[in-house]
Amino acid sequence: MNKFIKRIKDNQALYVLSILIIGILLLLIARITYAYLAPRIQSALGNVTTISDTVDDFKLELGRPLSLNATSTTLPENGSNLVVTSTEIAKLKANSTKKTATYNYYLYLQITNNTFKYSDGTTPEIILTITDPNGNEITSLDNLTYGTYNGVSGFDVTTAKGLFAIANNYEITSNSSTTYTEHDWNITLTYLNLNIDQSGNYGNSFETMLYLQKEAIKPKLAEYVISQYTGTQGENNIYYHDSNLANGANDNSYRYAGSNPDNYVCFGSDDATCPNDNLYRIIGVFDGKVKLVKYDYANSNLLGTNGDYKSGSTASSSYYIGKNSSTNVYYWNYQSDTSINQSHGSNTWSTSLLNKINLNTNYLNNIGSKWANMIDTVVWKVGGNTQANLANVNVINAYKNEIINPTSTITCYAKIGLMYISDYGFSADPSCWTTTLSSFYNNNSTNKVWMFMGYSEYTLTPSTTSEDGVMGIAMTGAVSSYTASVDNAIRPVFYLNTNVKMLSGDGTKTIPYRVG
After folding, report:
1. Rounded to whole angstroms, what are the CA distances from 69 to 205, 259, 397, 471?
2. From CA 43, how far away is CA 102, in angstroms rounded?
3. CA 108 to chain centre
4. Which helix or strand (DSSP H or E) is residue 461 part of?
């Protein structure tokens, strides 16, 4: 090989010719290679140019939960206010392709525990102050009162509980792919150190949770109802039955009272317009559970034509204010033994076919499993008391004789029951709470009682004056006594599970709360 190369170098003409041949060959290889690779290179370059940052950077950062604990150390006499603060941050940076982005978010404050009270009965002590991302103070929140208290502006939350929406579908926009747009929400709780004796609140606590998220919260129905109580008795027709409520139950329940509160719930139907047969009303919240009563009387499509159904009869009354074209009637406890107590039936609820068949079998089957599964199984008090102790007294005494100190401690464990006498009595305007229940008549009291419907109907409570006596509501609205073999209209009553949520609605009859 070396000799061959040497001969070419020694021959000048051959050497030049070899150089030309090699050059031409290299040129041909280059052209062939380019022709083959160029489309692929261009394709690759095209792919590279379409790969870019297309994902926005949206961050939601929660501060610490706010809590207050009053002690002689945290709130010394003549000392400073007790202040806790949290900052909730929403941040957005647009992607590098569009360089602009808009998102929405929600901010909630939930007061999960609050045992504080007004030390002197009226003066606000815990103030909630909120500033938005523009530095403006929020001055309006549903069911909270804004003002300036002892030099501190904000909302009085001294006795407040529940969920409060601070930012609802709030918009954040970024026009940069390199710098964040930042929204800072500053939330402050101030426990005012006042010139009054506040030692009664020592040991009490105030605890919250903050929620900053992309979707709206669907609150639990019980929490929502409680949040509608503003701390002022009677606002939104809700009364908190604590020890301070005159003539109240003192059971820490939240009850609707008055002529026509917005406490309607659509239950058993997802139709856009709630059928009359699916309207229910909230009696109140008891131990964290919402208690419902059917708005209008139940018919055989729900309760069936067996059990304690009375064939061929319907309710009749000139006082009726509902929408049923006809209303079926049922015995309280007769068909299980038609000869007992001289054929007057029995006031033992555990043997009642109305209880076992019509309410806790037929009704649950007919509303469907989706809805039946929302109903809790609870203890019903069916010990009863004498007619005199239940009808010839005002509602607080009826409550004590029916719930606190009944004649016997008999209970029933079931999903579906009927209203208590005290449920009916406390649904009246408080001006009626001192009225004897047997004196609740259509012309003087029942126009202030939202539970009144105008047919004779049964309650759950036995009259122990006799073995066949049962308490009920007369068509006039008065609390009265019947024998268990009398046919009356029926309205199912039940407690919802604590996890049932309020999905939509405003509680009016036309736009009732939707639950799920």
Report:
1. 5, 40, 37, 47
2. 34
3. 14
4. strand 457-463
Q: Is 209 helix (H, G, I), strand (E, B) or coil?
A: strand
Question: For the CA atoms of 475, 476, 478, 483, what is the dihedral angle to 10 degrees?
Answer: -30
SS3 annotation, 98-132: CCCEEEEEEEEEEEEEECCCCCCCCCCCEEEEEEC
pLDDT, mean of residues 433-438: 96
Residue 45 confidence (pLDDT): 33
| Interaxial angle between packed helices 12-50 and 2-10, expressed in degrees from 0 to 180 and rounded to the nearest 10 | 110
Task: Provide the pLDDT confidence category of residue 34 given band limits of 50, 70 and 90.
Answer: very low
Q: Phi and psi of 426, rounded to 5°? A: -75, -10
Burial label for 447, CB within 10 Å (0-12, 13-18, 19+), is middle
Look at residue 47 and tell me whether its pLDDT is greater than 90.
Answer: no
Residue 116 phi, psi dihedral angles, 5° rounding: -75, 155
pLDDT at 78: 83
| Mean pLDDT for the stretch of residues 172-184 | 95
Tokens found for residue 9? 């170098």
pLDDT, average across residues 199-204? 91
Count Cβ atoms within 10 A of the Cβ of residue 443 and give its class: 0-12 exposed, 13-18 middle, 19 or more buried. exposed
Neighbouring C-alpha atoms within 13 Å toward the C-beta of 301: 9
Instruction: Report which of 265, 320, 261 is spatially closest to residue 448, judged by C-alpha positions.
Output: 261
Tokens of 301: 């499509």
The predicted pLDDT at position 253 comes to 98
472-488 as b/e: b if 16+ CB within 10 A: bbbbbbbbbbbbbbbbb
Coil, strand or helix at 74 = coil
Contact (Cβ atoms closer than 8 angstroms) between residue 68 and residue 61 = no
Q: Are the beta carbons of 480 and 462 closer than 8 angstroms?
A: no
Residue 287, classed as helix, strand or coil, is coil
134 or 38: whose pLDDT is higher?
134
Taking the C-alpha atoms of residue 300 and residue 429, their distance in angstroms, rounded to an integer, is 32
φ and ψ at residue 365, rounded to 5 degrees = -65, -40
**What is the C-alpha to C-alpha distance for residues 235 and 139, in angstroms, rounded to an integer?**
19
Which amino acid is present at 333? N
Range in 50-59, 217-226, 243-252, 490-499 the model is least confident about: 50-59
Give ∠ CA 29-32-33 in degrees, rounded to 5: 85
The dihedral region occupied by 211, where left means phi > 0, alpha psi between -120 and 50, and beta the remainder, is: beta
What tokens were used for 13? 């003409």
- For the chain, give the percent of residues with pLDDT over 90: 79
What are the tokens at 231?
């701390």
β-strand partners of 126 = 191
- Cα(207)–Cα(322) distance, rounded to whole angstroms? 44
Residue 16 scores a pLDDT above 80:
no
What is the distance, to the nearest Å, from the Cα of residue 48 to the centroid of all Cα atoms in its chain? 51
Rg of the chain, C-alpha, whole Å: 37
